[in-house]
Write a structure and sequence with these properties.
Blueprint: E1 3-8, H1 18-25, H2 31-39, E2 43-45, E3 48-49, E4 61-66, E5 84-87, E6 91-96, H3 113-120, E7 147-153, H4 156-167, E8 172-180, E9 187-191, E10 194-196, E11 204-206, E12 216-224, E13 228-235, H5 242-250, E14 271-279, E15 286-290
Parallel strand pairs: 7-14
Antiparallel strand pairs: 1-4, 2-3, 2-4, 5-6, 6-7, 8-13, 8-14, 9-12, 10-11, 12-13, 14-15
Helix pairs in contact: 1-2
């Protein structure tokens, strides 16, 4: 949701650049996002649209209209190879590589899955419109560092049906992760409501409702070494960073997770969307897909 608010410049900030001033007063936002707001006219100084480097004066009135970050970005075709696990007239299942952002945003306008999709299918109308123009075809998301299965819809009817399947929890997902240590129990369920961290806005954390939302993950330890374990995770809900937060809560954060654990020699957190299973919304047939384990899961001698 877009919101507007006002700031009156205090005397001590006179002569400051507008973008620097906003970055100081809105630390939860990136400077590139704030500069995009200014450049596109969503910030006014004394009622006028101005440049990022405009100098402010004591008593100036700044009005900021905060726009969803993705709405400021525009997707364009980009030739990027894709690994397609399944495709028909209604949907595609992609094996997303680690390091690829799913859709464009102000700080990610190149190299995203959406850029690659627009090149492969030539025109945005060959993908579902979804809910926002910046993410054609995208029904759900994976974190940038998470690899594996992601579904893309080719038309709005399929998109709506798949979205309903995710919300009703009829689409079954299996993730696989390498975690630090060895969990005490081979199988278990983690039921922990999570929400945005009140201070560290990039993180999610345990929060009681209404600040936190229900989140449930089943897990099973497949095999272990002295230092690490291979764990299959079966999320019943789809909260942001759910598996990462739940495994940290268990006392066994995902190896390489900078946000919820630590990173040593890894280049990313070792989480992979391994399998996905659902009833096809058009044909009624059972679709089952598996994304092969990426090479960095060979860090330890596990087999599934």
């Amino acid at each position: 949701m877009n919101t507007s608010f006002e700031i009156i410049v205090e005397h001590s900030f006179r002569g400051e650049r507008l973008d620097v001033f906003l970055a100081q007063h809105l630390p939860e936002e990136s400077r590139s996002y704030l500069q995009s707001l200014i450049k596109q006219g969503h910030v006014t100084l004394q009622g006028k649209k101005v440049r990022c480097g405009e100098k402010i004066s004591s008593g100036d009135l700044i009005v900021i209209q905060k726009i969803q970050k993705q709405a400021l970005a525009k997707a364009f075709p980009e030739e990027i190879p894709l690994s397609v696990l399944y495709e028909d007239d209604d949907l595609i299942i992609i094996d997303k590589p680690a390091g690829m952002v799913v859709h464009v945003a102000t700080d990610h306008e190149k190299g995203t899955l959406v850029n690659a999709l627009l090149h492969r299918w030539n025109r945005p109308e060959e993908l579902s419109t979804g809910t926002e123009s910046y993410r054609p075809g995208i029904v759900h998301r994976l974190d940038k560092e998470t690899s594996g299965c992601i579904i893309v819809a080719k038309n709005d009817q399929t998109h709506a049906a798949l979205s309903k399947g995710f919300s009703e929890r009829s689409i079954k997902k299996t993730y696989i992760a390498i975690v630090s240590g060895k969990p005490r129990h081979r199988k278990g369920t983690i039921a922990l409501s999570i929400g945005r961290h009140p201070v560290q806005r990039m993180k999610m954390t345990e929060r009681r409702p209404p600040a936190g939302r229900e989140a449930v993950t089943d897990y099973e330890v497949l095999t272990s070494t002295e230092k690490e374990s291979l764990v299959a995770c079966f999320p019943h809900t789809g909260r942001m960073h759910q598996i990462r937060v739940h495994l940290q809560h268990l006392g066994h954060p995902i190896v390489g997770d900078l946000l919820y654990g630590k990173r040593e020699s890894q280049t990313r957190h070792l989480l992979h969307a391994w399998k996905i299973e659902f009833i096809h919304p058009k044909t009624g047939t059972l679709i089952q897909c598996e994304a092969p384990l990426p090479k960095d899961f060979d860090l330890v001698p596990f087999s599934t």
